[in-house]
Write a structure and sequence with these properties.
The chain is an alpha+beta fold. Helices cover 27% and strands 20% of the residues. The protein contains 17 helices and 17 strands. It has a 7-stranded antiparallel β-sheet. Strand 12 and strand 13 form a beta hairpin. The radius of gyration is 22 Å and the shape is globular. This is 6-hydroxy-D-nicotine oxidase. GO terms for molecular function: FAD binding; oxidoreductase activity. Its cofactor is FAD. Keywords: FAD, Flavoprotein, Oxidoreductase. Belongs to the oxygen-dependent FAD-linked oxidoreductase family.
Length: 517
Amino acid sequence: MQNPTPVRGAVRELLTQLDPEQVLTDGPGYQQGIRLWNGAVRHRPALIVRPRTPAQVQAAVLAARGNGPPLSVRGGGHDWAGRSLCPGGLVVDLSSMRQVVIDPRRRTAIVQGGATAGDVVTATAPYGLCPATGTVAGVGMTGLTLAGGYGPLNGRAGLALDNLLAADVVLADGRLVTADPDREPELYWALRGGGGNFGAVTSLRIRLHPVPRLVAGLITYPLPRAARVWERLNAFLAAAPDELTVQSGLVSGPDGSPALFPAPVWSGSTDHGEAAISPLQRLGSPLSTQTAPMPLAQMLRLNEQWAPAGRHYAIATRTLTRFTPGATAGLAEAAATRTSPLTGIAVHHFHGAATRVPLESTAFGLRHDHFVVEIVAVWAPGDRRASHHRAWADATSAALAPHALPGGYAQLLGPDAHDQAAHAYGPHTGRLSGGQETLRPRPRLRPPLRCPPPGTTHPPSAALGRPMARNRIEAGSRVRREALHHARRAHGPRTVPMDAHGLPHSRNSRTNRKEPA
């Protein structure tokens, strides 16, 4: 492993404060640190630091600041583009900080920065509580929460970020601060939807919900009936209660051919679950139907089979306001032309409580009903047709663009999706960039390299990427600079009644009325 002068200086400094097995430039621990969910990522940092405490995270950030190597932070290691590993730089690997502490009386959890969604769900289950999380267990809870967090409880509990009560953050100047509504309120606002641009988050305090069991499953329909099924699904979801969130998309059916699926999750009383889900079994003639009561942990494990760690992935995304005929035709064509039977499309459902959070209260830029289309090209290691698989994802994204909103969910955007990134934060781009004088330390950290897409051979751009332990979006970033010229769309503030949890009160949801503070 190459050990350039800035990294040698950082190593010497850190070895005076950390154990040798925490300061890694090679060996088994280093190799473990560079293995990510996406096996296509081949980024090699010069140094991996594996802190065990917030003070050690501070030491790593200060070592990078003082010696000059670019810096990134690795949480769950699930970002498809590998932006948690900065080539030639210093990586703060939080995988040794995965503790989850539950306060069942207050229905909150303290979650360390390296914990996965699965860690949190496992810790909360004995208390009959659930976090608002994503759809798989392996994703890092911190990265998921800071970016947004679409998942099975969106309708009932809002996005993961809507349940963030406080965060401990190491800023780029090495200070450890707590961000909540009273302390560092601007940073607290920016963390909820601004992504990992503002510092190394060492812990979160999140709200939990009394959901001991779900009714969930998977229903598949033949691809030739996709347009009709999506048309009926569109009408059904327009009136769906908060307790019912329905992911849909395209996967390989029982016989291996592409099939359309709705994957419902009911988070209300299990006594009403089957009745709530049954209309989804009558959208056409299903190929298969599998629904049952289950805990959230089981549902997340079942979803892991569709996207296991180690396969190669390329992801693109578009955001739809509804399933128009043009959009469903584009999705069906994508399924018919996919380049691998492992490839699929997941469509995430945003509705209910998530839509009633006032737009201006967080940095998340889209608060009306919509669907996030996650276009996932998947292939096995050793498959030499990687460029064909990536081209399929890009072509699918291009086909959906005329039917989609101009931005995209920032967590899924690739490093080169500049046109979409410019709109990703909606009306908040100016505040995120313009607030830099408030959030920026002096002197500021050298910006990190923006990591290239997996498998590319060109050197990384000097433009900034998302994965950095810094406390603002750098105005010099090429992507952010483009964003300053866009995303000034007007969204008037709304006054919304809030419940005892700080979530918008639902007129229709039994769940929100039942839950005590």
